[in-house]
Structure formats: C-alpha cells, structure tokens
Amino acid sequence: MVELVDVTKTYGDPEDPGAVSVLKGITLKIQPGRAIVIVGPSGCGKSTLLNIIGGLDHATSGRVLVDGKDLAGLDDDELARIRSREIGFVFQMHHLLPQCTVLENVLVPTLAEKSRAGPTRSGASHRDDLRREAESLLDRVGLTDRMSHRPGELSGGQRQRVAVARALINKPKLLLADEPTGSLDEDSSRSIADLLAELNRDAGVTLVVVTHSRELASRIGHVMELSGGVLNDKGRS
Prior knowledge:
This protein is an alpha/beta fold. Helices cover 36% and strands 26% of the residues.
C-alpha cells in the first residue's frame, strides 16, 4: 500500500552546511491492511514523514509510492484526487466546522468529491447514500445520539471521533493519523487508540499513526521509532 525508497527531507539547500536534514534515507514497505505506529520525540520529523506519505509535502530525494502510484510523478490535480479518494487524514486538532452539525462535518469531504465527479453523482439518491454512510460511520464511532449537535457541544474525545468518521467517509484505502490523541485526556486517548486499532482490524484500512506516546502506540500496531532521521523497527514494544 505504501512504499518509501531512500526518502530524504532537508530544509534549506542540501549543499549548504547550515541545512537541516530531518529524514535520512527512509526505506519502508507497508502492506495493505497493516497498522504501523511511528514514535519519537517532538521535532524528530514524524509529522514531516507522515505529510510526505500523504502527499502534503515533498521529499527532497527518494521515491514515495501509494497504492503503486509514484507521488512525484503526479500533478496537483492528480495528487488532490489521491488525497481525497484514497487517503484519510486525522490530525491532532480536529478542524471541525463549528457552524455545522456533526453529521454535516462528516459529509464535508464528499462536497469536493461531488464537484469533481460531475452531474452523474449529484442526484438525490447519491446524497441519500452518502447520508446513510455518514450515519453508519457515526454509529461505528459511538456518536449516533450526537449527529445533530455542533462541535462546541461535544467533548474533546467526541470531536476527535467525528474527525475519524469524516476521514473515512470517502472509503480511503489508507488512514494517516498525526498525534490524534495529543490534545486529549488519558481515557479519551486510549479510547481513540482502540478505535483506530478496531478500524484497522475490522475494516481493513491500512493505518499509519505518529505519536510521542509509546504506551499509546502499543495499543494500535507495529511500532517503529524515528530517531536521528532514521527509522528503526521496534516491533510491538
């Protein structure tokens, strides 16, 4: 599902002695349906690596392939389609629209999909299908009774569950989560970690999570550590 080949990321001119090298030759293969957790201290490059996998940032050198597609060879429109249709994103801050209900927030990514798909996907039947899918996802994350609420009426953990449902509405093959529990209390953090592990196990979504919490990482999947720009396999510990 994901393959990185000798990926580097340098801020500044690589030939400049003052340039900052964040990633140093990362090579990684993630098979479909696997769950990988990347740990490491703040500032070590975890988010940079995740953004490169998701096409939100570019590697300085090396190759990044998602579902067999080399991201470096895609133009902006093609990258946007990949991010919308094949990749779901969950960030530390939920980025929900405060004026919209929970259900409307989950449906937001489908608006961009509809505009790209054209008139054949804009009928009432399709809208009904999307609404049912959003309701099903909210039921799965335990928020059936909160669909008409707005984000300000939810707890932090509930808002993050909405963000997870929103990331899944377009049925992505790959889910990327960047410190998804970083702003939550301990109980909510464990709940979100267990939810991500469940989605990976039951729905078969390939999952890549970055976090500084090793205890949390052990609840989700196979652990790897980013240190000194190099990725080291830590197994389940």
